[in-house]
Amino acid sequence: MDRLTDGLVTADDVVLLIYDRTSAELYCYASRLTGGDRQQTQDLVQDTYVHLIQRVRDGRVDPERIEIGWLVQSCRQRYLEQVRRQRRRRTREQRAGSLRITTKDEMSADGDAMAALAALTPEHRTVLVLRYVDDLPISDIARIVGRRTRATESLLVRARAALRDSAATSQGGRS
């Protein structure tokens, strides 16, 4: 009865169907994580689907059981890996005395909330999305970002304050 083992539908066909069904929602989620950075969002979504294809081809995942929740979790993991790599790189640069200031490309006007999110650090954006988009408890967020619960609570307080400041700055600049 399994269409894959009967040879009627290939695993790649099923992954394409999953992509067609889930790509818009996954793109929206990834866009929130990246603060609307289109290139980073596209790269993140692509990495997520490449990971899915690898898992399906290795036989570690049944493609007929994949839902958006699995893809969101996979996307989140890939994003957090990027944030950790960036944090390690910044730490190495600071130790070497060559702190580099990077600027972001200007975002198109997708709304004040996205602009305010884009202005935040990746760590702040991550905890806010995990808390208020994914609705995860602090203990889960702490585990995901690799911090203690108290440190995560403090980070979330600082992230909310930074978001308020960023939103006030963007609203004040339009007057």
Could you write a compact summary of the structure shown?
The chain has helices at 11-34, 38-57, 68-95, 112-118, 122-133, 138-145, 149-174.
Task: Characterise the protein shown here.
This protein is mostly helical and 175 residues long. It has two domains: 1-102, Rna Polymerase Sigma Factor, Chain: A (Orthogonal Bundle); 106-175, Arc Repressor Mutant, subunit A. Helix content is 71%, strand content 0%. It contains seven helices and no strands. The chain has helices at residues 11-34, 38-57, 68-95, 112-118, 122-133, 138-145, 149-174. Helix 1 packs across helix 3 (68-95) and helix 6 crosses helix 7. It is globular, with a radius of gyration of 19 Å. The protein starts with 10 loop residues before the first helix and ends with a helix. Residues 97-110 have low confidence and may be disordered.
**CATH fold title of the largest domain:** Rna Polymerase Sigma Factor, Chain: A
Number of domains: 2
End-to-end separation in angstroms reads 64 Å
Number of helices: 7
Strand-and-helix sequence, N→C?
A: HHHHHHH
Low-pLDDT regions: 97-110
CATH-scheme architecture of the largest domain: Orthogonal Bundle
Helix/strand class: mainly alpha
Shape: globular
